Amino acid sequence: MTALDLSALRRAPKVLLHDHLDGGLRPETVLELARDCGYDGLPADTAPALATWFREAADSGSLERYLETFAHTVAVMQTPTGLERVARECAEDLADDGVVYAEVRFAPEQHLEEGLTLDQVVEQVLLGFRAGESAAETRGQRVRVGVLLTAMRHAARSREIAELAVRFRGRGVVGFDIAGAEAGNPPSRHLDAFEYMRNNNAHFTIHAGEAFGLPSIHEAIAFCGTDRLGHGVRITDDITIGDDGVPVLGSLANYVRDKRIPLELCPSSNVQTGAVDALENHPFGLLARLRFRVTVNTDNRLMSDTTMSREMLRLVETFGYGWTDLERYTINAMKSAFIPFDQRLQLIDEVIKPGFAVLVG
Ligand SMILES: O=c1[nH]cnc2c1ncn2[C@H]1C[C@H](O)[C@@H](CO)O1
Ligand SMILES: [Zn+2]
């Protein structure tokens, strides 16, 4: 059995379902792109100082304040070359960390300030991902990146973005999502977008149960018909621990578990936004023990100064997980991906299981 440390974790084949393109830029790239496009609003002028600023500013305990930090990354992702570069580097960084399959999301409507159309924005990002996959391959690494198009939940373009996602299906876009401030912007505001996706047999996930609790999760499932829950961590509000120490599930928690609705859990991000007060108290432990379909995710690598390997290491250190646990969460994620079933199985059988077998020894 290989010792479970960061370098071994980086060799494990990992699957990432919840990662924001505009939350994962390299600090040096933010600086260089800002210089290229004349953006002078950055709060620091060296890469280490900028990295620290993002992590500390995102550590606010409030989702709204956390989201304010994206103004700086979005500002430098307004040109074709900027978008292409950020996507290319994202694929390369994921491959370098041993991620073999990722679904990366971003909101095209936030990248129109310099006159690009929604279609052009998506095209540039897709070009970048293909270039990043090829660059990784020449280094002997492999990664496949699918794109989720996000609509901002406080805005009113979700139907248009859902149509964009369906239009680009088969060209690298695999699904749709809504994100942004959760309180006051319930998923049901965007019913027509979700209906459009369902009518087109297309997949979507919804950020729900992060800053707001059970009503948001209930709407996402019962009204909108979501395939997965972005975070969904507040499902624990529907689980009580009895006097005998035995957890009792309410009807919504039972439904989520019975239907095997995947939870895209993002441990570090949840602590930063205050969804959870400390990693030791993260419901990942309870939800995994109760055999919910839990998956491990980064959310925003820049804001949390993290990677998939580091998120896994934090869970190992907090909950004592071993390789077989991590393999189970990885297979959970692969089963929950939005690519066709046969392709998911192929990755499980040909990449994930053999990769973990080497580490388990
Ligand atoms: O964890 C999150 N919750 C809600 N919204 C988020 C989260 N992380 C990033 N976002 C927002 C900010 C980005 O600009 C947007 C699209 O990626 O999604
Ligand atoms: Zn997110």
TrEMBL record:
<keyword id="KW-0862">Zinc</keyword>
<feature type="binding site">
    <location>
        <position position="299"/>
    </location>
    <ligand>
        <name>Zn(2+)</name>
    </ligand>
</feature>
<protein>
    <recommendedName>
        <fullName>Adenosine deaminase</fullName>
        <ecNumber>3.5.4.4</ecNumber>
    </recommendedName>
</protein>
<dbReference type="InterPro" id="IPR032466">
    <property type="entry name" value="Metal_Hydrolase"/>
</dbReference>
<feature type="binding site">
    <location>
        <position position="20"/>
    </location>
    <ligand>
        <name>Zn(2+)</name>
    </ligand>
</feature>
<dbReference type="InterPro" id="IPR028893">
    <property type="entry name" value="A_deaminase"/>
</dbReference>
<feature type="active site" description="Proton donor">
    <location>
        <position position="210"/>
    </location>
</feature>
<feature type="binding site">
    <location>
        <position position="180"/>
    </location>
    <ligand>
        <name>substrate</name>
    </ligand>
</feature>
<feature type="binding site">
    <location>
        <position position="18"/>
    </location>
    <ligand>
        <name>Zn(2+)</name>
    </ligand>
</feature>
<feature type="binding site">
    <location>
        <position position="207"/>
    </location>
    <ligand>
        <name>Zn(2+)</name>
    </ligand>
</feature>
<feature type="domain" description="Adenosine deaminase">
    <location>
        <begin position="13"/>
        <end position="353"/>
    </location>
</feature>
<feature type="binding site">
    <location>
        <position position="20"/>
    </location>
    <ligand>
        <name>substrate</name>
    </ligand>
</feature>
<keyword id="KW-0546">Nucleotide metabolism</keyword>
<comment type="similarity">
    <text>Belongs to the metallo-dependent hydrolases superfamily. Adenosine and AMP deaminases family. Adenosine deaminase subfamily.</text>
</comment>
<dbReference type="GO" id="GO:0016787">
    <property type="term" value="F:hydrolase activity"/>
</dbReference>
<dbReference type="Pfam" id="PF00962">
    <property type="entry name" value="A_deaminase"/>
</dbReference>
<dbReference type="InterPro" id="IPR006330">
    <property type="entry name" value="Ado/ade_deaminase"/>
</dbReference>
<keyword id="KW-0378">Hydrolase</keyword>
<keyword id="KW-0479">Metal-binding</keyword>
<feature type="binding site">
    <location>
        <position position="22"/>
    </location>
    <ligand>
        <name>substrate</name>
    </ligand>
</feature>
<comment type="function">
    <text>Catalyzes the hydrolytic deamination of adenosine and 2-deoxyadenosine.</text>
</comment>
<dbReference type="InterPro" id="IPR001365">
    <property type="entry name" value="A_deaminase_dom"/>
</dbReference>
<feature type="site" description="Important for catalytic activity">
    <location>
        <position position="231"/>
    </location>
</feature>
